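A quick aside before the break. I want you to see a complete sequence-to-structure record at least once, exactly as it would be stored in a machine-readable document. Don't worry about memorizing anything.
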Amino acid sequence: MHDISYHLRAQQAPMKAALVELVRIPSVCDEGAGGYPFGEAVDQALRKALQIAGDLGFKTYYDDGGYYGYAEVGEGEELLGILGHLDVVPPGKREDWTNDPFNPVEKDGMLYGRGTQDDKGPLMAALFAVKALLDAGVPFNKRVRFIFGTDEETLWRCITRYKEIEELPGMGFSPDSRFPLTYAEKGLLQLRLEGANQSGVTLRGGSAFNAVPDAMLYTGKRQVELAGKLTQLGFPYQELTGGIEVKGKAAHAMLPEEGINAIARLCLALQAIGIESKAINFIAQEIGEDPNATKIFGPCADEPSGRLKFNVGKIDLGAIEQLSIDCRIPVTVDKEEVVAKLIAAAAKYGLEYREFDWLAPIYLPLDHFMIETLMKVYRALSRDKVSQPVSSGGATYARAMDNCVAFGALLVGEELTEHQPNERAVLKNLYKAMEIYAHAIHELTS
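That is the input. The structure line, written in tokens, reads:
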């Protein structure tokens, strides 16, 4: 292996500068805005990433529909794909951030900003890892293609379009998880439960299917009684002008147990004081604060990927009552069995099931060549001989292609802050990830 340590060090400052440029672009999906499929800011992030790659010496391509782009180097018939995304989840409430989420700030060795962990930071680490290889004169016997997605946090329409039109890599990885690597990803079901609102209660809150809601505002009747019940239940809240805000804790829907669901807490308290609706009763009586929805699904789990996870991400009680739900299904569990149990539970409350999105699980055996190769590189560079490949409730682009896994960029034990206020990347860890990516890409293309 070539000694590329000098070239990796030389890329640290430019990589950080490129990441700052990208994080400054508030690339939250804004469907159709400005004539772009996912909004003007998402398109701006895509064009910026392609410009950065082009300046590094990559050949670049911008999909004329604005759904995706890619950047490629190397020679040969075979194609190694590195799949990442440039869209981000909404930042949530500005006051929960120490700094502006789209004006990145470096402090105590960390870069703060929405997208630093998910997924702009890891993507830049992998891109500049290839630049270090190029500068070191390392030959590529395969082509390396970075596929830039723009709709990962919502419906994956970018990668669907890419697969319809473009050459598919024979193998690859997505830098959108943590090391050592992820060999199994649960099935990801997003759905809505809906029914006519006959309650007279109006309520709206939550930001995304895949985010545990950290606050829920109630502006309806009997607020004094509600405050008393919240106090009795031990649920923190704040009295605001005209309403009561129930406090929760943000988390990613793949790990809902790490958050506190403010929608669930409000519904539990409302139902306890006799304010009811189909959705409120469903949450209070069937889910409560159980991130596994055990009352509906029982002890639903498997050995490769663990327990089923269930998150009520949004509630909207207008003329129609609507719950937006994210459900992560173990890799060997039949989706239809899960759906049948959910339909039966919802029907008791007059709610109907509507599927919004489904991503099938992935599961590569531990003796698969991609896993063996990447684990060998990871162990050599991290000196971590203990950590094993993991399964995840997360959904990465790895499941979009064959022979693909999620690989980094978080180090073992590093705090997960994606989808949360004060999302941040530990820069020395990002530079370590860049080193691991460089050696892995060299190994996979030699």
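Two observations worth writing down. The radius of gyration is 23 Å. DSSP finds eleven helices and 26 strands in the chain. We'll return to this after the break.
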